[in-house]
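User: I'm preparing a small set of examples for a lab meeting where we compare how different chains pack in three dimensions. I only have the primary sequence for this one, and I'd like the structure in C-alpha cell form so I can line it up with the others. Please keep the answer compact; I'll paste it straight into my notes.
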Amino acid sequence: MPAAQKPPADLHGAAIGPRGAAVVTPYHLEPLEWLERCHRSCLDQQGGWALRHVMVADGHPRDDVDAWDVEHIRLPRAHADNGNTPRCLGAISAINQGYWPILFLDADNWYQPWHLDSVVALRHRHPIADVLAMGRQCVLPDGTPIPGLPEEDLEHRHVDTSCYVFYPSAFRALPLWGMMPPALGPVCDRFMLGSLHELGLVIAGTHHPSVVFTTHYSWGYQALDQPVPDDVHDVDWKRVNAGFDPVEVFRRTGLSVQLTRPSVGAPLEASSRGSSVSGPPLDAATTMPTMITSRPTA
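Assistant: Understood. Below is the C-alpha cell output for the 298-residue chain.
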C-alpha cells in the first residue's frame, strides 16, 4: 500500500469549495415534516462550513419550501424513477453555480450535526479521493435505531445515495443519475457504485455514522424482531433483473455495469475497522474506520 499523501496546505479549500458544498434533495409526495427535518439538518451543521441546500420537486412542488433558505427547483411532472431525474438536474444546477462537493440527501433522511465535519476530516485523510462514502445509522420510520449495519455496507459493496459525496474530479459521473434506465431507479445507488468503479474513480469511506437513514425495508424490522408492515419498499429483484438491459445501459451511458445484489438473510454487524473493496483491510488503529479503493483490477 503506498504511503499516505500529505494533505495540501489549504485544507479548507481541499475539502469545501469557495462557494461551499451543495446538498441535493429530490422530493415527491413526502410529508412536509419530513422535508422540514431534512432541511433543518442541513442548516444545523457544525463547523461553519458554507452549504447550499437544493430541493427539487418531482412534479409535486410544495409552496412552503419557497419560504425556506433553499434553492427550490420545480419540475412540471413526476418522472417515476425514484428521484433520479430531479437528483441529476439538481446536481448539474449546483455544479454550474460553482458549488462543490456535491452531496445527496433523500427527503426521508437527515444529517447528524457533525456530517460536514466528518466529510472534511475524511477528505483531509484521503485528499486524492474523487468520491467519499459516509457512514449511516439506520432507523425505522418511527425513529427506532437499528443496531449494526448490513454486511455489504461494512464491506463497502453498497453505498446509499444519501452517503455519497462527489468532488469535481467525479462530476462526470453525476449525469448518470438521470441517464440510467428508469427501471433501475430502485437500485440507483448500486448502479452508481458500479459506474464509479467502471470509471476508475477513487472512493474513500468511513463507517462513522453521520447520516440517519430511514429504512422502509423488511430487514430493518427483522433486525429488531418486529413484525414487518405491509408498506415496506423491498426491492423487487425479479422485476429489476427483467428491466436490466446491458445494451440499453451501454447506449445511454457508455458503461458496462453489473449490479450487486445483497446477500439474502445476512446479519447486521457492528463496525470496528475499515475495509477495502480492492485490497486488504486498512489498519483501523491508524486510519479510523475508513477505506479507500480504486477500480478493481481483476
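A couple of notes for your slides: Residues 84-96 form the longest helix (13 residues). The radius of gyration is 18 Å.

User: Perfect, thanks.
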